[in-house]
Write a structure and sequence with these properties.
Layout lengths: L2 H19 L6 E9 L8 E6 L2 E7 L2 E2 L8 H11 L3 H18 L4 E5 L3 E2 L7 E8 L2 E2 H7 L4 E2 L11 H15 L36 E2 L5 H5 L6 H9 L17 H7 L3 E2 L1
Parallel strand pairs: 3-7, 10-11
Antiparallel strand pairs: 1-2, 1-5, 2-3, 4-9, 5-7, 6-7, 7-8
Helix pairs in contact: 2-3, 4-5
Amino acid sequence: MPVRIFLLILLTFVLGPLHAAEPQHPWERWEDCTHRADQFFDGDSFQVKYGRKTYVLRLYGADTPETDDGYGTRIAEQAAYFGVTAAEVLRGGATAKEFTAKFLSKPFTVITRRKVAPGASRSERIYASVERDGVGLDVALIEAGLARATTETADGPDAASGLRLRGLEQKAAKEGKGLWATSQRTDRSASLLERLTPRIFKPAGLPKPHTVNLNTASAADLEALPGIGPKTAAQIIAARPIKDLSALDALPGFGPKTIEALRELVSF
């Protein structure tokens, strides 16, 4: 058997399963979908029911703030992007979640080709666009200042919508909508094009997130951190001086999840 033919057969066996692992589905349009609220949904990820089946969707084009204080690194990155504190990110996430729930309170349309979305979700998520009464959920969230535009639109049903979403975000920032209302960023015009960097990476050139010094912060500043209440704030103050996060291990109520959430948000 000629070497060239042998190599072609070998590549077919090796690469064939890789291509089969992620099939390219045609675009589908699901009408009259309904929202199924569960404890894990937020502004850009949620369960929907179509026919007899339930799916978990990840919205194309929009990235809303986190609602779980366990994602410390993500919260720090979003705080830097919007120019707000970690506490404001979590409050913005809760507001975005309520906004999405209201948007999905009436039957809506889903457009998807069932591409699997990455992330730390407990269930498999698929990318999708959502529309109701001719309005996209991604557009509504970004116009309200409750989400930032992402590069995921490049894979969406309308690849050209990316520029429009970026323009809407820039407008929301200039008008101080949503999270932008308390933003400390002074570069809200040209530098908003930094969103061209995929959201899972920390965009270069963004200001560092505001950190809270555990040795000098007031009780009120400590309580603004994720997972910190009056009791744990008092414990931190009593334990001063604190050299690093490992010192919190000895304090009651500080588990690995809380410590990880603080990693990018505190200094000493």
